[in-house]
Design brief:
mainly alpha, 7 helices, globular
Length: 167
């Protein structure tokens, strides 16, 4: 059982965020009236988790030997931590986000706030992607619980043994 090196964690976070938020960003890039309706919410709720799953499976296949939890947790963290930035990019196509005329102060403040997971949840509510975000998070948590139950109790409580150094 190998682990993912820590230098790959930011890449996995970016992959997870892109795999999940790209359909939402592209939906806002399509020229139309700019209003997200119930039809769009249903599309996002279906497509976004599927693209995240496809990204996860492709990443797992490319990183042979890495356990799913070593890949899935950074990818899910990327969804929550980078989601606000992707939603701001999507809002930019509609005249908001990074192209707001309110000045650089508000853009910088929104960019910083978008890194907070709670703000990602709030933005997803207005964006129409809240159901997809909650679905992916709930399924990931349930998969983690199932894997935890399958793991023997002896290996769950096992902490890494301290290394002995030669004197």
């Amino acid at each position: 059982m190998s682990s993912v090196p820590s230098r790959r964690i930011p890449k996995l976070m970016l992959l997870g965020a892109a795999g999940f938020w790209l359909p939402d960003t592209l939906l806002h890039a399509v020229p139309r009236n700019g209003i997200v309706n119930w039809h769009d919410v249903r599309i996002l709720t279906t497509v976004m988790p599927l693209t995240f799953l496809g990204t996860f499976l492709a990443t797992r296949w490319l990183q042979k030997g890495a356990t799913p939890k070593r890949i899935g947790l950074p990818m899910l963290a990327g969804v929550w931590l980078l989601g606000g930035l992707f939603m701001m990019i999507g809002a930019s196509f509609l005249g908001g986000g990074f192209v707001m005329s309110d000045g650089a102060y508000w853009i910088g403040l929104l960019a910083l706030l978008s890194l907070l997971p709670m703000y990602t949840f709030v933005m997803a509510t207005y964006d129409g992607s809240q159901f997809a975000l909650m679905l992916v998070t709930t399924v990931a948590f349930l998969v983690w619980l199932i894997q935890l139950r399958r793991m023997p109790l002896s290996s769950r409580n096992k902490s890494p043994s301290p290394r002995k150094f030669a004197a």
